[in-house]
Write the C-alpha cells for this entry.
Amino acid sequence: PLDGGMLFPQESSFREVKELNGLWDFRADGSPNRNEGFEKAWYKRRLTETGPVIEMPVPASYNDITQDPTLRDFIGWVWYEREVFVPARWISDEGTRVVLRVGSAHYYSIVWVNGEKVTEHEGGHLPFEAEISSLIRKEPTKPCRITIAVNNTLTLETLPPGTIQYMNDSSRYPDGFFVQNIDFDFFNYAGIHRSVLLYTTPKVHVDDISVETNFMDNTGLVRYKVSVQGGFNNTLNITLMDKDGHFVASSTGSSGGLKVVDVKLWWPYLMHENPGYLYSMKVRQHTSTYEDEYTLPVGIRTINVTNTQFLINNKPFYFHGVNKHEDSDIRGRGFDWPLIVKDFNLMKWLGVNSFRTSHYPYAEEILQMCDRHGIVVIDECPGVGIKDIRSFRNASLSHHLVVMDELVRRDKNHPSVVMWSVANEPASEMPPAEFYFKTLIEHTKALDQTRPVTYVTIAAADMDKGGPYVDVVCANSYFAWYFDQGRLDIIPLQLSTHFENWYRKYQRPIIQSEYGADAVPGLHMDPPMMFTEEYQNALLQSYHDVFDQKRNQYFVGELIWNFADFMTSQGIYRVVGNKKGIFTRQRQPKAAAFLLRKRYWRLANETG
Ligand code: GCB
C-alpha cells in the first residue's frame, strides 16, 4: 500500500497553490558514465556554479527544444533547477504544510530542496510529491532552491521496458557507444512533462477521498471514505451539492453514504442531452485549531459488463472513439492547455464519445475535462512493449503492481474512467504471461471493485494466455497493413474470423482497440495504394463493414489508431513519425477525419 493520498492540488479558503512553471536552468550530464552530477554533487550548489546551463521550459520534453541532436537523443541524467520565493506567511505559520509536487517527469527523478534530498520517484506519467515545510523554515529569508535530476534510461524492470546495448566493435563504433532498444512505437520523450507546484494544506488536512457511486430508480448513492492526516480529534462534515450549488445531502464522519433523490446521472457525450453531470462533494474537517476543505467533483454512474455488452447506467454503451498520445511539435509530451482544448474540440467535432490513454496515464487535467464533457476513458498504465521474456520476471511484476497502485490512487474518483488497461500488446503468448496477468489483474481488481480490467492484445486468440482474466477483450489488428500489405480484399474474412475466435475462446465483449493505416497527408492514388489518404479511407471502410455486422452480437466498440500523427524513434517504417493519424500532428484533418466524423455521428444516433 502507498503512503498517503494524491489529491489533485486545489485552492480553497484553507489551501493555496503556486505554480513553478516557466524557465528553469538545465544541464544534461554528458560525462561518459553520466554520473558527474552525483560525483560532484551538483545539487549542493547552484547549478550555474558547477558548469554551463541553458534555459529550459517547464513543462515540456527537453528533446525538441534545441538544435542539438545529442540532446534530442540524450539518454541519462539531466538536471533542472530554479529558485523560488516562498510567501513569508507560509513560513511563519507553523500550522501550514508546504508540499512540492511534480505532475510527472520521465523517467526516474530525484528532488532536492536547498541541497537536501526530499524525494525520489520511479516512473513517468504519474505525480509525486514531498512535504518541505520544515526544510524551508530552516532558512526562512533565502529563496528556496529546487533541483530535480531526471533520468530517462529504460531497463527490463522499468515501465515501459527497454535495454541499453553497448556496441563494442571498435572498428565500427567509437568508445562507449550505446543505443537504447525499445519495443514500443513512440519517441521516448523525457524531462519534466507536467506542472511543478508548491501548495499548502493545514497541518491537519484531508489527505485522501474515495467515492463509489450507485443508483436505484431515481435515487443515487454516493459512498465515501475520507482520510485525514496530521492530527486527531477532528470533525468531518461532508456536503453534496448539485451543479447549481444547491444542497443535496450531507453526512459526518470518515466514511458513509449520501442519498441523492431525483438523481441526475453522469452520462457520456452524445448518449444524453446533459452529459457529464457533476455534483460537488465538499469535505470539511476541523479540530479546535485547524480547518481544511477540499471539494471533489462527483459523477454518479455505474459500470457493468456482461458476456456481450458494456453497460453504463445499465444501458449498452458503444465506444466510438480514438487512441491518443500526449504528443505535439516542439513540446513533445509537455502539458499544454491550447493543445488539450483543441483536441477536445476536435474530438467533439468528430463525434467521439471515448478514448484510450494509449500508452500511459495522461495528465489529470485531461481526465477532469473528460468528467465534465462526458468523454469516456479507458485508463492505460505505461505497461507497453513487454515483449522480452525477461520483462515477466518478479522484479518487473512488482514494479508493475506499484504503478497500478499509483494509477488507481490518482484516478479512482473520475467518473469518466470506466476501465483500467494494465498493458498494451505484451507477449501474452509466452508461458509466464499467464501468471503475470492473473496477478496483475487480480491486484487491480482488489484496488478497485467498481471497474472492469483489461489489457490490450495483438496476439491471435488461440495463442493468448492472459485473456481468461480480462473483463473485455481489447484486440488490436492491422490487417492489410503489416500483413498482406496492400490487400484490402482480405479484411472481411480475416477480421470476422479473428473476432469469432476471440469470442469463442472467452465469451467476452470485444473492442477493436486499434486499427488503421499510415497516410502521408496530401499523397493521393486511385485505386488506393498504401500511404495515400485513399488507402487509409478504404482500409477504415472495410473494417467498418465488419464492425457493423458484429455490432449487435458481442462487438462493443472501435477506437481508431490514431487520433493524430505522432513522433517515434527513427527507423525505416517511420517517415518522421507514425502517420496513422486521422489528423496531422498539427491537428489538421486528413480525408479519414471526414469519413470517421460521418460514421461517428451516425453511430451516435443509432446507439446513443
Ligand atoms: C500497435 C501499437 C501502437 C503502434 C501501432 C502502429 O499495435 O499498439 O503503439 O503505434 O501499432 O502504428 O504500428
In short: The pocket of GCB is lined by residues 185, 359, 424-425, 458, 476, 514, 561, 578, 580 (CB under 6 Å). The two ends are 40 Å apart (CA to CA).
